[in-house]
Amino acid sequence: MSRIAVARRLRRDQTHAEARLWTLVRGRRLADAKFRRQVPIGRYVADFVCLEARLIIEIDGGAHDAEEAQLKDLERTAVLESFGYHLIRFSNGQVLNAPGEVCDVIVATLRAARA
Questions:
Q1: Of the candidates 86, 79, 83, 15, which has an alpha carbon nearest to the alpha carbon of residue 57?
Q2: Chain segment 12-48, per-residue pLDDT in tens
Q3: Which of 3, 5, 37, 84 has its CA 20 to 30 A from that of 12?
Q4: CA–CA separation, 27 and 57 (whole Å)
Q5: What's the number of domains the chain is made of?
Q6: What CATH number is attached to the domain comprising 40?
Q7: Which segments constitute the DUF559 domain (predicted)?
Q8: What Å distances lie between residue 69 and 18, 74, 107, CA to CA?
Q9: Angle 55-99-36 (CA atoms, 0-180°, nearest 5)?
Q10: Can you give the pLDDT at residue 67?
Q11: Structural domain harbouring 27
């Protein structure tokens, strides 16, 4: 399956946390930044991307707690950062239980990128 087909499937089958964050960032609702979701970058598909700020937001579920998954996440982060992106990660719980705090971190990161 192509990365574009994978991205389309991921957009259609998003998690609750991804859907919640999308409602908060879509349509330039957050710091007037345009976000896209499930964007192919290199061999990966990033959850959310603001191209103008070179910012990637990843939402991690419980599977990312396993040691093997954490090692893969480190590799993924290194590859995405090698393309010039800054990457921030939130857990599903953070997005669902503290969306205001998540938005504060995103806004602060966007402001720093624009400075």
A1: 86
A2: 768 999 999 999 999 999 999 999 999 999 989 999 9
A3: 84
A4: 16
A5: 1
A6: 3.40.960.10
A7: 4-110
A8: 19, 9, 28
A9: 35
A10: 72
A11: 3-114
